[in-house]
């Protein structure tokens, strides 16, 4: 009788009613708070292969057949001299110019979980200098159809130089802690409540870095090249910071005998395809550069 009573519906219902209640917070699919927590969880993951459980069908095959990254065998050598180190640095800078764009530092599955504006911001920050076609390659094929809309969104974070897009100077060198840190995109960073004037490790004010970089971009747009001495007078900036800034947007032009000429050209080849397709956008930026620096040359 006891076993039959324990198997009865009334007995099970009484046990269920006697169970203690536990308070839970439910967040439905698509809720902003749930998306925010998901970004924090997956952003902290060390593995590049993050399963988001809702990958777009168009990218499922690409995740299955990812190409292995090339590995360079480590080499050991004696400490180079200052001249040798400078030559190696210049060679490294020049060789890096041949690549189309830098690889994203996050998996595309995580990138696609952000809004379109956040995706473009992360892509532009990651590359600093990029062709428009390479930006489109990083976005979802479904989004690329609205190409003209993407051009408008890119201008929020980048300026046009020789048909290519360059990260804005105030985003790369924020003037205070309340500005966005270029190493931590604004969609994932926490701003400090106290504004502090920011400087480089060499002690150069970020505001001076902004002025010098903007003038360098103007010269690259109008003349196609620049001279280090020509932009060094724009604002007080150390030689190391000037060289580091130039390597992000330009490449040195050697003489016929391989020596340094002091001249620098733009980091990428001119994107004539974009210039021909979006002539109105290019014209606006020519007016912008002339208005900002036209009276100096």
UniProtKB/TrEMBL annotation:
Matches recorded under Pfam families:
RPC5
Alphabetized InterPro entries for the sequence: RNA_pol_III_Rpc5
List cellular component terms (GO): RNA polymerase III complex
| BP GO annotations | tRNA transcription by RNA polymerase III
Record has Nucleus as a keyword? no
Give the source's domain of life in one word. Answer: Eukaryota
* Assigned keywords, A-Z: DNA-directed RNA polymerase, Transcription
Q: Would the keyword Heme turn up in this protein's UniProt record? A: no
Its recorded name reads: DNA-directed RNA polymerase III subunit RPC5-like
The species is: Hirondellea gigas
């Amino acid at each position: 009788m006891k076993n039959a009573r324990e198997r009865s519906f009334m007995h099970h219902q009484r046990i269920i009613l006697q169970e203690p209640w536990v308070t839970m917070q439910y967040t439905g699919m698509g809720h902003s708070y749930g998306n925010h927590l998901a970004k924090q969880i997956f952003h902290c993951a060390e593995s590049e292969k993050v399963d988001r459980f809702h990958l777009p069908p168009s990218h499922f095959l690409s995740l299955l057949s990812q190409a292995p990254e090339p590995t360079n065998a480590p080499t050991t050598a004696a400490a180079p001299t200052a001249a040798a180190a400078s030559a190696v640095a210049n060679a490294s800078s020049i060789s890096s110019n041949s690549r189309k764009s830098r690889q994203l530092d996050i998996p595309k599955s995580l990138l696609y979980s952000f809004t379109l504006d956040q995706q473009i911001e992360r892509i532009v920050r990651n590359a600093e200098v990029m062709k428009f076609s390479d930006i489109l390659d990083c976005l979802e094929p479904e989004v690329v159809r609205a190409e003209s809309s993407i051009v408008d969104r890119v201008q929020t974070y980048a300026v046009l130089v020789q048909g290519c897009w360059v990260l804005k100077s105030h985003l790369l060198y924020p003037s205070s802690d309340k500005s966005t840190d270029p190493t931590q995109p604004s969609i994932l960073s926490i701003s400090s409540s106290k504004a502090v004037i920011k400087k480089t490790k060499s002690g150069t004010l970020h505001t001076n870095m902004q002025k010098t970089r903007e003038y360098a971009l103007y010269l690259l747009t109008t003349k196609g090249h620049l001279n280090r001495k020509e932009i060094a007078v724009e604002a007080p900036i150390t030689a190391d910071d000037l060289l580091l800034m130039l390597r992000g947007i330009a490449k040195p032009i050697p003489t016929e005998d391989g020596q340094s000429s002091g001249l620098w050209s733009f980091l990428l080849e001119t994107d004539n395809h974009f210039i021909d397709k979006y002539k109105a956008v290019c014209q606006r930026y020519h007016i912008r550069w002339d208005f900002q620096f036209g009276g100096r040359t």
